[in-house]
Amino acid sequence: MARDGDVPTIFNPKRVRTPSVIITSEEVAESVQSGDGERERPNGPPTPLSQRAPLTPQTSVSSAPPLTTQPSLQQAYSESAGSSQDEERQLRDKKCPRSCCSKVAKKIYYGLCVTTTVFASWVTVTHCIKYMYLQKYPHTDSSLSSTESPINNNYTSRIRTHHYYNAPFFTAWFCTNWLIFFYPLYLIFMLIHNKCKSANAIFADAFTDFKDKGFTFARFLSRCGLFCLLWVVTIYMYTYALKILLSTDVVALFATNVSCVYLLSWVILHEQFVGVRIVAAILCDTGIALLAYMDGITGSSTLGGVVLAACAAAGFAIFKVLFRKVMGDVSTGQRALFFSILGIVNATLLWPVCLALYLTGTEQLPAHRMPWLPLLLASGALLAFHLVFQFGNLMTYNIFVSLGLITAVPISAALDVVLYGVEFEGMKLAGIILITVGFFLVMFPDNWPDYIMRLLRWSRRRQRGADGAGRSRDTVDYRTGYIRSHLRSPSGRVR
Question: Where are the stretches annotated Disordered (predicted)?
Fold first, then answer.
């Protein structure tokens, strides 16, 4: 029996050929009915006395069952051509794994796009919120003085910055509301990408997966409520820190969340212990301490702002680790559904807090001229940041997603220098550098010593090759076996 992919030729006489003409049972019956005395052989030529019916594709070729399992010549040729193309493709991938068209190269290209999106959106969020705090929003009526309020009540005496935006909790609540668009955007993408499934089927799959994990409706909503509270408190501390510190300081302090994520994962999720990451956590803490005392201790609110930014980084790390601990391994649809429900819970339950803070005078909103443009821009950029941050690992490596946080530090510093004339020097510059170094140390892989050993071996091998090429090789004395030995003399005697 022929093997798959072999082409039957005259050089393989033992292989069965597919006959060009096949006699069906209908033709044999017609020949018997016509009165022929002699029968035709099944596959042989007809006798001169027999009258064969004309062969048609419907009666002879299409309806006849094959007499052998050997593929036809055209099918065998197509299979062999397809297998040869696959082998050539695999060989080409092996020869040039680092070409611009390989899968690794495409992941790197996607990773660069993801990193750019992460740091661009994060810098946009930070500077838009900082701009709202610094900008003054005077009343359009010039008859009112800058310190008067058109509404006289018991709270106006305590409001001295009525023409400034001072509402960090409202900012956090408003930006969190945009998380509602997580699942609709995911649903639109899935409907475009996979047209075989309906929206109801995709929606039911996400809920079915949560139900299979043992989540009831009440339990799921309670978990969403706790995570929503943690999320809003984290964003609130970040926005409040922007009221006190510069944008670059807050961005750098928030980047320390990677060291907090590792420490919590080591304790709670029992991940592998890596010593260099402990050193990275120490460096990040040292950088935080330098930023805390860069303006002194007394008479400055810098210490409070640094504590708020560091707590925001720790809160974001707690959110990530607890999500993995409580929810487990979730699919993309489950993650999108969870964040949408988190936004719905935030919009439904926390709006009375915003109203209470405004009525008590704790937060001031310039109602006559609300900064809607920077607020909407910050909310949209925060939504884009979290979309890429949560789903970026589907397109590229996870390290490119994390690199966006630390790449935002020099971009934000450049904007601070250009817009506000900030000078980075002394303890502030040292603290940012230590945080950056600690961030990159946390990004080291678990088996980083293996990579260092490979690098050392490669450098030694290259150095030996250069030394061997620089000097001519000594002639080998086959009589004494002398090959530049330190133990034997040129005569062969032991030294």
Answer: 1-90
Both structure tokens of 275: 């010593």
Look up residue 362 and give its two tokens. Answer: 């704790």
Which of 111, 390, 439, 385 shows the shortest CA–CA distance to 238?
Answer: 385
Cα–Cα dist 111/107, whole Å: 6
Report helix angle 247-254 to 398-420, nearest 10.
Answer: 160
Cβ contact 293:426 at 8 Å:
no
- For the chain, give the secondary structure using H, E and C: CCCCCCCCCCCCCCCCCCCCCCCCHHHHHHHHHCCCCCCCCCCCCCCCCCCCCCCCHHHHHHCCCCCCCCCCHHHHHHHHHHHHHHHHHHHHHHHCCCCCCCHHHHHHHHHHHHHHHHHHHHHHHHHHHHHHHHCECCCCCCCCCCCCCCCCCCCHHHCCCCCECECHHHHHHHHHHHHHHHHHHHHHHHHHHCCCCCHHHHHHHHHHHHHHCCCCHHHHHHHHHHHHHHHHHHHHHHHHHHHHCCHHHHHHHHCCHHHHHHHHHHHCCCCCCCHHHHHHHHHHHHHHHHHHCCCCCCCCCHHHHHHHHHHHHHHHHHHHHHHHHHHCCCCHHHHHHHHHHHHHHHHHHCHHHHHHHHHCCCCECCCCCCCHHHHHHHHHHHHHHHHHHHHHHHCCCHHHHHHHHHHHHHHHHHHHHHHHCCCCCHHHHHHHHHHHHHHHHHCCCCCHHHHHHHHHHHHHHHHHHHHHHHCCCCCCECCCCECCCCCECCCCCEC
Other Cβ atoms less than 10 A from the Cβ of 322: the count is: 16
CB 423 within 8 Å of CB 249:
no
CB–CB of 257/309 below 8 Å?
A: no
| Contact indicator for 476, 483 with CB cutoff of 8 Å | yes
C-alpha 30/C-alpha 371 separation (Å) is 93
Q: pLDDT tens for residues 84-127?
A: 555 656 555 554 545 566 777 888 888 899 999 999 999 999 99
CB neighbour class for 410 (10 Å; exposed up to 12, middle 13-18, buried from 19): middle
309 CA to centre of own chain: 25
Side chain identity, residue 410: P
Buried b (16+ CB within 10 A) or exposed e, 19-34: eeebbbeebeeebeee
CA distance 293 to 302: 8
Average pLDDT of the chain?
75
Interaxial angle between packed helices 247-254 and 217-244, expressed in degrees from 0 to 180 and rounded to the nearest 10? 140
pTM of the predicted model as reported, rounded to 2 decimal places? 0.69
> What mean pLDDT do residues 329-352 have?
89
**Separation of alpha carbons 383 and 177, rounded Å:** 10
